[in-house]
Amino acid sequence: MKVIAFNGSPHEKGSTYAALSLVTAELEKQGIETEIIHVGTKTYHGCTGCGACAQTGRCIFTDDLVNECIGKLEQADGLLLGSPVHYAGVAGSMKAFLDRVFYCYAGKKMHFKVGAVVTALRRAGGVDTFHQLNNYLNLANMLIVPNHYWNVAYGTNGEEVRQDAEGVQIMQMLGRKMAWLLQTVALGKQTLPPPEAPARIHTNFIRP
Fold first, then answer.
1. Whole-prediction pTM value?
2. Which of 15, 48, 137, 206 has the fewest CB atoms below 10 angstroms from its CB?
3. pLDDT tens string for the chain (208 positions)?
4. Residue 92 burial (C-beta neighbours within 10 Å; 0-12, 13-18, 19+)
5. Do 194 and 169 contact (CB within 8 A), yes or no?
6. Backbone CA torsion sign across 182, 187, 189, 192
7. CB of 2 within 8 A of CB of 33?
8. Any idea of the CA torsion for 11, 170, 128, 156, to the nearest 10 degrees?
9. Distance between CA 54 and CA 104 in Å, rounded?
10. How open is the CA angle 185-171-14, to the nearest 5 degrees?
């Protein structure tokens, strides 16, 4: 099994990376392969809603990491999203990246795979960002890993995050629970297939 993690921070080895690493370390203890991909320093074109990806499964914009990361998700059993907090929300480049990854691929092809999110911050806005990230997993029909508290770590850098005793415990427990859920899903697939999805109904509340 393999889990792909996206680090949306502009700092490659900063607080978000430290939080993700605490989770992936626990996954690796359970024999689950992990890969942290740093996407936060790149510039991403926002989704234009052109619909071309509906035919190809890939984004029409090819000058960034979106299509490469979609290729990695095809081989993944789980997905871990990490973002810093910018103005009480997901970092801008991370959101543009996720909008396209999920619209092109993950929103359609990650159904019933396991997902989790983490946020890292100095002071406030972590829960708002946590909820925003979870929206991607929820709307992709992914199985979201439960935890005993919000997956938020405090610190302006990796060293400070590792001093946040409660945050460290939260991340470690998230990793253990994610490993358990991945293993449970793998066992369940041997005897019980997931429910079939009906054709989607789309309405816009405008009536003639």
1. 0.94
2. 206
3. 999 999 999 999 999 999 999 999 999 999 999 999 999 998 999 999 999 999 999 999 999 999 999 999 999 999 999 999 999 999 999 999 999 999 999 888 999 999 999 999 999 999 999 999 999 999 999 999 999 999 999 999 999 999 999 999 999 999 999 999 999 999 998 899 888 888 888 888 887 6
4. middle
5. no
6. negative
7. yes
8. -30
9. 7
10. 125
Residue type, 68: E
Cα–Cα distances in angstroms (integers) from residue 60 to residues 46, 54, 101, 105, 194, in the given order: 11, 10, 12, 12, 31
Contact 122, 155 (CB under 8 A): yes
Residue with the two structure tokens 């080895």: 13
Say which amino acid occupies 183.
Answer: Q
